Amino acid sequence: MIPVMIWGTIIMKKKYGGKDYFFAVIVTMGCSLFILYPASMDVSPLNKGRESTVWGVSLMLGYLGFDGFTSTFQDKLFKGYEMEIHNQIFYTTMCSCVISLSGLILQNHLLPAVDFMVRHPDCFYDVLILSTVATASQFFISYTIRTFGALTFATIMTTRQLVSILLSCVWFVHPLSWMQWVGAAIVFGALYAKTFSRNKLQKAAVVSSPSQGSVPNAANS
């Protein structure tokens, strides 16, 4: 959420209030607690400690920065050029295909990948299902960004990732540490408080609008 707000300020000249930054920082802190403090049984036996390197942190910061830029720039294209959803998905997918094909050719992985598909034809159906679901999800993503904006999409994705990890822990019987429970409570509490405050403001605006409209009517009468 924080990278999206930073990019939104730079690219789209948006102005966010202190409450928006406060909720973004709280959600980020909750997610950090959930990720950085797993249960002791959940640490791989091949790696006795939780290790953070400069390269690993740099990769994570780069991912967050580029991911925030992508959704923000999509929002700019929708609002600035009135681009249709299917047009944006088509051109983005074409660029992804060119980049992926170039990577396979430069790394000499294209022929081994084709050979793997030939030797394992059952894998083709799995790839087809995965590609179909991923393509369908792009329509939901683009619709959300176009209708509600990049920050709302970032909030949804943050919540989805946390819920996905929680379901994975339940499904594969991975224990949760008390710090992870605290992090999850912080994230969902902050999101609930944000939604509650927004609904309260909307109700207040609806209640105040009839009283504002009655002043001209009284003057005319």
Written description of the protein model:
This is UDP-galactose/UDP-glucose transporter 5B. Its main location: membrane. InterPro entries: EmrE-like, SCL35B1-4/HUT1. It is a multi-pass membrane protein. The chain crosses the membrane at residues 21-40, 52-69, 89-107, 127-145, 179-196. The chain has one domain (1-39, 54-201). The radius of gyration is 23 Å and the shape is globular. Helix 2 runs antiparallel to helix 8. The protein has helices at residues 2-11, 18-36, 54-81, 85-106, 110-119, 122-148, 150-171, 178-220. It contains eight helices and no strands. With 221 residues, it is mostly helical.
What are the defining features of this structure?
transport, globular, UDP-galactose/UDP-glucose transporter 5B, 3'-phosphoadenosine 5'-phosphosulfate transmembrane transporter activity, 8 helices, single chain
Low-pLDDT stretches: 213-221
> What is the count of β-strands?
0
Overall mean pLDDT score? 82
Shape estimate: globular
> What is the percentage of strand-forming residues?
under 5%
Helix content: over 70%
Query: Main sheet?
Result: none
Number of domain units = 1
**What is the chain-wise order of helices and strands?**
HHHHHHHH
Distance between the termini: 50 Å
Our count of helices gives 8
Please identify the structural class as seen in this structure: mainly alpha
Radius of gyration: 23 Å
